[in-house]
Structure formats: C-alpha cells, structure tokens
Amino acid sequence: MRLATVNDRLVLVSEDAQTCVPAQSVSLLAALRGGSYAPDGDALALDPAQCAAPLPVSHTFLDGSAYVNHVDLVRRARGAEMPERFWTDPLMYQGCAVFEAPNAPILADPAWGTDFEAELAVITGDVPCGASPEEGAAAIRFVTVLNDISLRALIPDELSKGFGFVQSKPPSACAPFAVSPEALPGWDGARLHGTMCIDLNGKPFGRVQTGEGMTFDFGQLVAHAAKTRALPAGTVIGSGTVSNRDAQGGPGQPVADGGLGYACIAEQRTVETLAHGGPRTPFLTEGDQVTIWFEDTEGNRPFGDISQTVKHRAGHD
Amino acid sequence: MRLATVNDRLVLVSEDAQTCVPAQSVSLLAALRGGSYAPDGDALALDPAQCAAPLPVSHTFLDGSAYVNHVDLVRRARGAEMPERFWTDPLMYQGCAVFEAPNAPILADPAWGTDFEAELAVITGDVPCGASPEEGAAAIRFVTVLNDISLRALIPDELSKGFGFVQSKPPSACAPFAVSPEALPGWDGARLHGTMCIDLNGKPFGRVQTGEGMTFDFGQLVAHAAKTRALPAGTVIGSGTVSNRDAQGGPGQPVADGGLGYACIAEQRTVETLAHGGPRTPFLTEGDQVTIWFEDTEGNRPFGDISQTVKHRAGHD
C-alpha cells in the first residue's frame, strides 16, 4: 500500500504513481487510528508537485541517530569526542512533528549554516509502553523518507545547553509517499535495504546504503522511544542521517572521488577537513537544489522524490 | 472564554464551571485553525472527572525553563554547574505533544525517581518565523496548567548524551480548562500573576508565585521557539517549573518550615540536602496523590484541578 496526501485528503497511489484514489479516511492519522484505507471515489491524475507530506502533522516525531558513523563524523567536525556508549545506547531527540511538503522551499539565513540530512522514517500504529524491539518492529505501519533540515551554525551553542535541538532543527520535509513495509522489497522486518540518493544542484552527492551501518534497527528505536510512554498511532520515528563506513572502516569518500558520498554536507566537510585541513563544500545557499530519493533493491523509487530549492529567508520586520 | 474537552468534544465552560455547552468546532485545534468557538447545543452538567486535557493532542510542545531558580536548584542537586548565560538565553526542549487528562494515573516504575513539575503553559495561534517577543505575546490564545512528569533517575544519563529529554519526560497531564488571557485577572500581557498550588497527599507542598522569578516571559519564550520556524496554531509553550527565590535570594523553605515550598520534589530535596546533608522527601511512590491548581489574584481556580494518583507501572511481559 502506498499513500499520499493531496489537497488535505489521504489518497491511495497507483503502482505506476500516475493516478490516485481518495481513501475512506480523510487523513493518514485518522486511518492509523482505526479508520479505513479502502478506496472511496474515482481515480484522479496524480501530480507529485501537489503532494503534501503523507502525514503533514503528527503529535510525535522522535528522531534517532542509528547510523552511528554519522554521529562520529559530525562530532569530529566540531571537535567533540563521541562516547563509546553511543554504540550500544541509541541517541534520540524529540523533533518537530510538522512535516513540510516534498517540494517546500528551504528558507535559510546565511548565518545558520543550513544543511540537509537524508534519512528513513517509520510511522507506527499504537505501541504500548515498555514494548520490546520485536513488538516495536511489528508496530511499524509505513516507511518514508525525510530531509531533516539542520542548522549547523546553531547546533553547537544549542546542544551545549543540554536540552537538545529546538532552533537548530526546524521542520523536516517528507517524501510524497508513505509505503507499507510489505510493499518494499528491501524490508527485512526492521531495516530497509537500498540506496539513499542525494543530488546537490543536479550532481550526485550521496549514494548511501541504508541497510549498512544502521547500528540500531527500527524495532530497537521504537522500543527506545516507548520505554516510559505509550506511543500513539501516527508516531514518526526517524533513523537519523544515513551514513556508511568504507570497506576499511574509514569515513568513505565523496562521490566525485569515487566513494558513496554522504547524506549531509557536514559529513563531507569533515572528510575534507581530515584530508585537506579544511572544508571545501559550503553549506546551502540561495538557489541550491537538493533532491533526495530512495532507490529500492529493484531500482524503483517507492517514496518519490524530495526536491527542494533554498531561498533566502526574508527578514521579519 | 474557558474551554474543556469532554467525550472528544470541545465545550465552553460556564462561569461557575457547573455546566458546559458544545462549541461549533469539534476540537480546540480545529477552533484555533480558524474554526468557531460559538456555542452549538444545549447546556450539559460538567463533571471535571470526565474532562480530557483541553488540547489532548497537539503537534508541538516546546517547554521552556523560564524560572531560572529551578534550573539552578536541580542542577545543584545533581552536582552540575549552571552556566551564567542561562539568565539571558532561554532553555527550551521539544516535549511530548500528547497531553494526559487531569486525573490520569501517573504510571511509575520505582527505579525511575518519578517527580511532578507544576507549570503554566500557553497555547498559541499561528506565529510567523522570526516573530518578536511582542508578536509572540500577542499570539497567545489560551493559558493552562501542566504537570510535566519528570523521571529524575533517568535524566542525568539521558541529558549527558546531549540530545535532551526523551525517556525522562513522558507525557504531561493538563488541567481541565484552558482560559483565554482576557478572562484571567492576573494576566499582564506576557506573564500570569497568582499562586501555583501543589498538595502532596493532601498536605500543602507548594504555594509558589507564578509572577515572580519568571526570568523569560511567555512572549520571549514564543519568540525563542519561533526563531527558525513558524509555529502553527495549537503550539503549546511551557514555562517550566514555577520556582521562587526567597527574600534573601536563597532557595526558600518547604511549606512545613514556613516557606512557599516548591513546585517539584527535586527542589525540596536539594534544599534538604543543603540543610541536612541529604534529601528527606522521597520521589513519588505507589498511592501518592498529587493535586495541582492555580489560584488567581481573586482567589479562584480558573483552570480547575490536576489530581493524579501514582500507580506502579505493571511489567510489560
């Protein structure tokens, strides 16, 4: 099953993604809360440019950082050591549960050091407090892709206060489609195998393997989130930036240098700093175009494309 | 205007809180998004025990820590220094936007060190990105009271990871009523003056002045939250635990010793530790009863009572 939200209405997406049919439940949240996914109306042409996020507003977004290689690299970039326990105890923060459309502009202030982060996310049904990783995995209803916009220049100062991200993580954008696990050929029950593809200004920036380097699977992330609370249906759990080590255990290479590249600019800057003594790739500036899609093990793009253009944030005066 | 949610339905509460009338909009979120607060039906008897939180589920809960005295005290309790900048740069974390009913049980594991935190919260209309504190204050539509349940034994470990609270801050409970600022005699445009009252097992625990010691007002907290994102209507912004210094600038005294007491157990334990070398008040255990209400400058309880009993969390096996 593949779903989208068009004109504030939940729709079922056809196999070729050319048409859609309204679902009986008006929203994905209502459907997840016991509503119906049954088709209810005539088929319509589907224009991905008209898609909102499949779940435009939820109540809970808990974003993990399951690809620990990413944590290691971005910490190195800001001169912070990564504690050994991060390999056994998942990092997770409460994020903004408002999700932007796949083609929403990225409004950025040049002083913020705006970056993308391509990640997978799952949307759960009801999860009881204290659920096990197996119960967590079984509660996953849909998978999608997020661009977790990160304001790198604001992060060190905000994290040093110890309360996590607020200003430095504005709303994420979401791919147009949410897909149920059984419709995803690379789903192994708790991880999704395939390639997270990122193009920056039309050039390949990342071709990162989502099934590799995911230290904590989605079942473990859901269980971590549910340790002291029940998670209501519609909870979104993010994987954190997809990130791979290379065959030698190192941080890999940019695509331009023959590597798999990265799912955020910060990692590439760290690698450039390690290699050349300083970063060479700037953070996002006005006019930059970011395209993110997931390619499955059969070469398809089940979630459609996130395609965003960076706009200078107008002053508010 | 005073609102509640009864049987999944937004209702207007009468002046004496004995009756209510359904509102045209089904939910507070719908009303805030441009719906109607107009009465739509017959008056019904209002039983506060039937009230859910006035806004049972939102998309965004950003909890400040505006009473900096609280931060100073709980940090001292865990041997952590408070940076000087906390007096000028608001602390804020992204919290769980699911709100429990005023009489929901507090499900606690004895190992978690469960505590209450009585705080004020505001519910906003739409706030543009980059709003000023004045614009932030003007966007406040309703005020209410929260009990921000805090699992003290989990906090140091979780905060040391640097990503803020997830497991250590399960959903907050909310008072039965949300009240518009113009109906609150102690509202000064950005702060609410009155007394936050907390009884533990029927004995006064706190009688803390909400208009004093609030280093950052609600306008400043809303502006902080809106620095890099628009806040959609229905955003909840918390004040953090209400906390007063005494006349000498010290941490005050428990009610039993003639002071104003505290709005959480952690502060009282810190003061006990400073005075006696160790804490004397245990965290919450099964059967404990916590009652929280706000008394306004005219001696009324505009938000009604939060009244919760602690239950041992059953194992999930």
Oligomer: homodimer
Provide the CATH top-level class of the largest domain in chain A.
Answer: Alpha Beta
CATH topology of the largest domain in chain A: Fumarylacetoacetate hydrolase, domain 2
CATH homology superfamily name of the largest domain in chain A: Fumarylacetoacetase-like, C-terminal domain
- Summarize the helix and strand pattern of chain A as letters: EEEHEEEHEEEEHEEHEEEEHEHEE
Q: What is the number of strand segments of chain A?
A: 19
Largest sheet of chain A: 6 strands, antiparallel
> Alpha-carbon distance between the termini of chain A?
46 Å
Average pLDDT level of chain A: 95
Low-confidence stretches of chain A: none
Give the proportion of residues in helices of chain A.
10-25%
User: How many individual helices of chain A?
Assistant: 6
Proportion of strand residues of chain A: 25-35%
Give the domain tally of chain A.
Answer: 2
Backbone structural class of chain A: alpha+beta
Radius of gyration of chain A: 19 Å
Largest interface: A-B, 47 and 47 residues
Q: What general outline of chain A do the C-alpha atoms trace?
A: globular
CATH architect. name of the largest domain in chain A: Alpha-Beta Complex
